[in-house]
Amino acid sequence: MTDRDLRLFSVWCAREALKLVKEPDERSINACDVSERFANGEATQEELDAACAAAGEVAWDVERKSVG
Questions:
Q1: How much is the CA Rg of the chain, to the nearest whole Å?
Q2: Residue 66 and residue 68: Cα distance in Å, rounded?
Q3: Around Cβ 50, how many Cβ atoms within 10 Å?
Q4: Helix and strand tally (H, E) in the chain?
Q5: How does pLDDT run across 41-58, given as a tens digit for each residue?
Q6: Nearest to 22 by CA among 50, 62, 53
Q7: What angle do CA 36, 38, 39 make, to 5 degrees?
Q8: How far is CA 11 from the centre of its chain?
Q9: CA 22 from centroid of its chain's CA atoms
Q10: What pTM was computed for the model?
Q11: CB distance 31 to 54 below 8 Å
Protein backbone atom coordinates (compact mmCIF):
# COMPACT_ATOMS: atom_id res chain seq x y z
CA MET A 1 0.00 0.00 0.00
CA THR A 2 1.15 3.51 -0.72
CA ASP A 3 1.19 6.35 1.79
CA ARG A 4 -1.86 7.77 -0.01
CA ASP A 5 -3.72 4.45 0.29
CA LEU A 6 -2.99 4.29 4.01
CA ARG A 7 -4.12 7.87 4.54
CA LEU A 8 -7.35 7.31 2.63
CA PHE A 9 -8.03 4.09 4.55
CA SER A 10 -7.47 5.98 7.81
CA VAL A 11 -9.92 8.66 6.71
CA TRP A 12 -12.47 5.99 5.81
CA CYS A 13 -12.07 4.42 9.28
CA ALA A 14 -12.48 7.80 10.96
CA ARG A 15 -15.61 8.57 8.95
CA GLU A 16 -17.07 5.17 9.86
CA ALA A 17 -16.38 5.90 13.54
CA LEU A 18 -18.04 9.31 13.24
CA LYS A 19 -21.19 7.60 11.99
CA LEU A 20 -21.48 6.08 15.46
CA VAL A 21 -21.49 9.50 17.13
CA LYS A 22 -24.90 11.06 17.60
CA GLU A 23 -23.76 14.62 16.90
CA PRO A 24 -20.14 14.61 15.67
CA ASP A 25 -18.19 17.80 16.20
CA GLU A 26 -17.66 19.81 13.03
CA ARG A 27 -13.92 19.96 13.78
CA SER A 28 -13.71 16.16 13.52
CA ILE A 29 -15.57 16.16 10.24
CA ASN A 30 -13.30 18.92 8.94
CA ALA A 31 -10.22 16.93 9.98
CA CYS A 32 -11.44 14.03 7.84
CA ASP A 33 -12.11 16.35 4.90
CA VAL A 34 -8.69 18.00 5.11
CA SER A 35 -6.94 14.65 5.59
CA GLU A 36 -8.60 13.29 2.48
CA ARG A 37 -7.68 16.41 0.52
CA PHE A 38 -4.09 16.13 1.79
CA ALA A 39 -3.87 12.49 0.68
CA ASN A 40 -5.01 13.59 -2.77
CA GLY A 41 -2.49 16.44 -2.91
CA GLU A 42 -5.17 19.12 -2.52
CA ALA A 43 -4.30 20.47 0.96
CA THR A 44 -1.08 21.75 2.45
CA GLN A 45 0.80 20.42 5.45
CA GLU A 46 -0.19 23.59 7.31
CA GLU A 47 -3.89 22.92 6.65
CA LEU A 48 -3.44 19.35 7.83
CA ASP A 49 -1.63 20.48 10.99
CA ALA A 50 -4.38 22.99 11.79
CA ALA A 51 -7.13 20.41 11.27
CA CYS A 52 -5.25 17.93 13.44
CA ALA A 53 -4.88 20.50 16.22
CA ALA A 54 -8.58 21.35 16.07
CA ALA A 55 -9.54 17.68 16.20
CA GLY A 56 -7.27 17.26 19.21
CA GLU A 57 -9.21 20.04 20.93
CA VAL A 58 -12.37 17.99 20.40
CA ALA A 59 -10.85 15.12 22.37
CA TRP A 60 -9.96 17.48 25.23
CA ASP A 61 -13.46 19.01 25.16
CA VAL A 62 -15.08 15.58 25.35
CA GLU A 63 -12.80 14.51 28.19
CA ARG A 64 -13.56 17.68 30.19
CA LYS A 65 -17.30 17.15 29.75
CA SER A 66 -17.11 13.54 30.89
CA VAL A 67 -15.10 14.40 34.01
CA GLY A 68 -17.02 17.57 34.92
A1: 13
A2: 6
A3: 15
A4: 3, 0
A5: 999 999 999 999 999 998
A6: 62
A7: 65
A8: 7
A9: 16
A10: 0.88
A11: yes
